Amino acid sequence: MEQPEKAGRLRRLWQWWRRPSRLALGTLLIIGFAGGIFFLASFNKTMEMSNSEAFCISCHEMRDNVYQEYTSTAHYSNRSGVRATCPDCHVPHEFVPKMVRKIQASKELYVKILGSIDTPQKFDSHRLAMAQNEWRRMKNNNSQECRNCHNFDYMDFSGQKTVAAEKHSEAIKTGQTCIDCHQGIAHKLPDMTGVHSGS
Q1: Domain count, the chain
Q2: Most CB atoms closer than 10 Å: which of 31, 34, 113, 119?
Q3: What is the pLDDT of residues 98-122, one digit of tens each?
Q4: Beta-carbon count within 10 A of 90 CB
Q5: Same domain, yes or no, for 110 and 145?
Q6: What one-character DSSP code corresponds to residue 183?
Q7: Is residue 179 a contact partner of residue 143, using CB atoms and an 8 Å limit?
Q8: pLDDT in tens, 145-156
Q9: Do 41 and 108 sit in the same domain of this protein?
Q10: Is 64 found in the same domain as 45?
Q11: What is the C-alpha separation between 131 and 192, in angstroms, rounded?
């Protein structure tokens, strides 16, 4: 007697699932809507947290190497009090390029797990390759992260030193981008012995 009763319950549940009532459909919509809001809020919070300087220097490879170099530059401390943090220079502001960069950064987690750059010596041995990858990325996007704050269109060349004004004017004429000249602006340059210019 118990088997047919169980089979009857399963059949009724299956029929309800195939033809939900308006109440069940409304419940599904509400749950779906609430789930969507929760997902978006969680996604935005995760993006916000992973786009912070604290997140960037949470691993000792960054904190003990490039972050220490950055703290002695004008991007860290200057007379105007404006600070460019790690994500300002290394993560695009636009949504799609930011997502692409976040996916690319997953390789950095792999390197962290392998311990490829976990000592100053290992870090320095990979510094040139890491720098060239970043320079290539910035060259390919026309130094967009730099241009979020520094833009040729808004520069007052008369207020710049003569050499800087000449170089910036030349850069505009030749189609150069910020990273072509300012590779060592926030971090120590790697050993460039044997590297051709323009790398």
Answers
A1: 2
A2: 119
A3: 999 999 888 888 888 899 999 999 9
A4: 16
A5: yes
A6: T
A7: yes
A8: 999 999 999 999
A9: no
A10: no
A11: 11
Same domain flag for 8 and 63: no
Tokens of 61: 């490879």
165 and 187 part of one domain? yes
Residue-wise pLDDT tens for the chain (199 aa)?
Answer: 567 788 888 888 777 767 766 677 778 889 999 999 999 999 999 999 999 999 999 988 999 999 999 999 999 999 889 999 999 999 998 999 999 999 988 888 888 889 999 999 999 999 999 999 999 999 999 999 999 999 999 999 999 999 999 999 999 999 999 999 999 889 999 988 877 655 4
**Domain, as residue range, for 33:** 1-50
Does one domain contain both 113 and 184? yes
Alpha helices by DSSP H, the chain: 2-18, 22-50, 53-56, 60-61, 67-70, 86-90, 95-114, 120-140, 144-147, 162-174, 178-181
Q: Do residue 135 and residue 179 come from a single domain?
A: yes
**Taking a C-beta distance cutoff of 8 angstroms, is the pair 131, 183 a contact?**
yes
Here the tokens at position 134 are: 């970043």
**Rounded CA gap, 137 and 95, in Å?**
17
Distance, CA of 102 to CA of 94 (rounded, Å): 12
**Residue 106 sits in the same domain as residue 73:** yes
